[in-house]
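Researcher: Quick one. three chains, 1178 residues in total.
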Amino acid sequence: MSAENMNLTLKVWRQKNKKTEGKIETYQVAGISPDMSFLEMFDVLNEQLIGEGKEPIAFDHDCREGICGMCSMYINGRPHGPKGGITTCQLHMRSFNDGDTIVVEPWRAQAFPVIKDLVVDRTAFDRIQAAGGFISVNTGNAQDANSIPISKEDADEAFAAAACIGCGACVAACKNASAMLFVSAKVSQFALLPQGQPERKMRVERMVAQMDEEGFGSCTNTGACSAECPKEISLEHIARLNREYLGAKLTSQGV
Amino acid sequence: MSWLTQTLTSSIGKKLVMALTGLFLCSFLLVHMSGNLQLFKNDNGLAFNIYAVFMTTNPLVKTISYGLYALILLHAFEGLYLAAQNRKARGNQRYVVYNGKANSSWFSRNMAILGTVLLVFIVVHMSNFWFEYKFGYVPYTQYEQSLATGEVTSTPFEGEIKGKMEEFVREESQTRVVIVKDLYRSVMEGFKNPLLVLFYVIAMFAVSFHLVHGFQSAFQTLGINHPKYNPLLNFLGAGVFGIIIPIGFALMPLYFFFKSM
Amino acid sequence: MATSPKLNAKIPDGSLEDKWTKYRSTVALVNPANKRKLEIIVVGTGLAGASAAATLAELGYSVKAFCFQDSARRAHSIAAQGGINAAKNYQNDGDSTYRLFYDTIKGGDYRAREGNVYRLAQVSASIIDQCVAQGVPFAREYGGLLSNRSFGGTQVQRTFYAAGQTGQQLLLGAYSGLQRQVGLGTVKMYSRHEMLDVVVIDGKCRGIIARNLVTGEVERHFGHAVLLCTGGYGNVFYLSTNAMGSNVTAAWKAHKKGAFFGNPCFTQIHPTCIPVSGDHQSKLTLMSESLRNDGRIWVPKKKDDNRPANQISEDERDYYLERRYPAFGNLVPRDIASRAAKERCDAGYGVGTSKMAVYLDYSAAIQRYGKGEVNKLNIHDASAEKITELGKAVVKEKYGNLFDMYKQITGEDPYEVPMRIYPAVHYTMGGLWVDYNLMTTVPGLYALGEANFSDHGANRLGASALMQGLADGYFVIPYTIGAYLANEIRTNSIPTDHPAFVEAEKQVKDRISKLVSIKGKTSPEAFHKRLGKIMWDKCGMARNEAGLKEAISEIQALKKEFWSDVRVMGDIDEFNPELDKAGRVADFIELGELMCRDALNRNESCGGHFREEYQTEEGEALRDDENYMYVAAWEHQGESQWELHKEDLVYENIKIAQRSYK
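Model:
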């Protein structure tokens, strides 16, 4: 069923902590099965390093099924590696060949400082969400769920935006380290739904202001974010964010 | 900060400035192109030279043109500022391996470089023609056009006239006489230089790439991205601004260069 | 049999229907001014934790929320696929609160409390209202109203869903509510923090010790009450559908500080997961239960048949579920489907390189749908290719994302060859014992969601985990916590230099130092794998007395070896995932022993707990209601020492019956 096992050369970014400089280290791994996931290949490497008395490589990962958004490796110049529409944990070694050299780096953005090796701090996303990525409805306030009919088209479109897993691949892929795709997904989801209307203007103004404060770059519409997004979130959401923002700025009460 | 300043200095606001100025510059290209097509007219430059006078004397056009210069500068410097800021957003440590071509086009990632080429081009272009025309020495030419046949003859004019152009009709010979600053001749002379021609052609490639991305990107920034209308925008962006206009402009230096050979 | 005096479930009196409504209206309240002075610690930010933290903050309490992930949004609730049950009866198909209650008790094989489960069914409808108001994009019909689908163990359509990502959407809804409170300053969020002990002062829980996973700093946090919303412990088996970080540590620390552990051996094994492909495997991936609607499960009739599936002719195939359970066929409940697959593989009929898999075949469904399409489209004399093509299109529409996921992981195309599936650990019904207020046996210490034992008995029905997590967080704890906190309004914040905090912190630090100083030869990961193998082989889908006894001694030996040979690389005062992992594995080892003891104690088969000695002649689970209709709550009394306390289960509203699916 599976092809021959592989030997690979890995060049991995090692960095002790936020303050120290990092560098690329080279490792060899042997006997990698094509059925392994990319992260399992890293498990093998880490066991090997522990055996040699060296410190294993720190990397973020959790669900290993492409939904938690924790894994975040920049592989051979692309976030989540060579295949589209998947996260690092869904990447399997059959996408590589025996003898390949693979370069693995952390997400790089001023707003995502490196914590250690391949682990970065993405709390900027949480702060953007806290600035306005919600509908202010206290528990118990809700009316019957079916009292607000929502067209299937809008519900589906809102879902497509809400599928964002907040992994940050958009920021990592963008040459400007822009977070527009992430922000647009949340703004879009709520702008499309009737529940999101009361706070619509305030939400977009606040989230964009927070995004700017965090030090993300601005969008130059290269489309790299959407091309690398594991959930394939469309650029149309960024257009909607632009509309929402400019519309809100022109018409909101805030002076 | 007032809401307006705050809006225009936000990341989206800056992009709005880029989009609006960019689209204005696109509209200028259309005007510039349609005017300059008169270079290809077989009248030794009569129509073109009259057009040049109109463009530099009409008060409305003059006002717009100063606005245009300001917007070019605004577009250029805001663009460079954004590029610097965006570069900073990546952080001090850049990627060791970066495979941008896997997810985006080269020109979309290099708008600042293309824009810088264009800025240099605009400076060269304006100093060659606009500056010379306004402040330097451009010879006068006297055109005589038969009112009956429309045939035009031209001779260098050595005398002095007031302003850039004088026009009258010689009743006796039924000819229209136009004495005008001959920018056409400057163009003709200028494009005998193969290096300048090459520079212009390269710059037009830059225009093409800059606009293929820029035109459609401006609409995206304005929030216009819809499957129904995207084909039209793509056609305008890639077809008109990416191909037809740059080719039209590039043909001008090439036309005079080969004509002079 | 009588309930232990140490266990008071505090089920309110009155009829089943009125218990909760009456209790809710009479439980003590805390006035708004006092709420501000009361601090609540919430550990874990999954559905239960995020919803509880947000709601308590809305009510005015001062909340501190902790999660070990880098963001509250990444808790493992996010991975739930199928849906969430609610007794809305939107489909007009006869659903009701009682029916949801009844299905849940029966599905749990009569090992859950009536009072708790009825309350769960009662609040289920409000959950959907709340989530929709938050902007959760549930699937909808063209008319704009909510869509439902059916799930295992029920005969009505009561499952609300958002494609195959329902857990994600619900969690992001709760997370957005949480972030709103973070923005308002009413919740202080501590991400990348792991709770390593609870602090008990004068018999009441008063705070936690947590480690900042980035700096390694050990911190003390005071709280008038502590809520553990830390999920299940399926990772004790090493391989499970849980996230890599899912762990028992918080619950286990609480257990060692006096919280009883309820029904630890009740584990749910999900029948349709992608099988293990080799020793490198780090986790298992679930394929939604919905696949059993159209797929047929089979193995070859011949032992050790190594031919590819499509070379095995129809009459050489054994559709064993259809053969054994003609009434329910491929749609028998999870525990039964899982055991049947194991039985076939153990008997030598398994498929694939590992021989530990069965086929889930869509070829019949493709043909059936293809012929249906041909009729619909009025195509006469359709070629076989055309039928197959149309059939594949229908299957793609219904299950495309699951088929893609299978292909991604295995590299095989499930449209062409049958999928290979095998059961995998998925959920743990057991957990910290809690009363009706969700309080553990330590006053002031609560457990919510999968972390408690309460609502699912011995087997959980599909789409009920999301319901329980959100019910606990949104609609139960905000009321029931008043019963305790109303008496705490005079308790001022206890300074964290109190000797109990100092002592707890010292213990935590000593343990960390110990782990790092052993400097043995074996990685925490390797120990975890070995523990998992013992648990899976001897306390997994089928258990027996001899095996469990062996497992207990093997685990005790493993524990000894761990504490003398573990190798933890890196330092204490830095980001160190190896150290985090080592601590978790150490706790899993201790838990594993307790699970085996609980399984050994329970001399019956019920739900997910199958003791080979207790089965009918046809190999079905044989319950012993006479002797085991109780919750086993284990009190920790020292190393490898536990005392069993029993809480009798009283069924006043439901007639107990044998489950049969034949």
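Chain C is about 40% helix and 15% strand.
Researcher: Thanks, that's what I needed.
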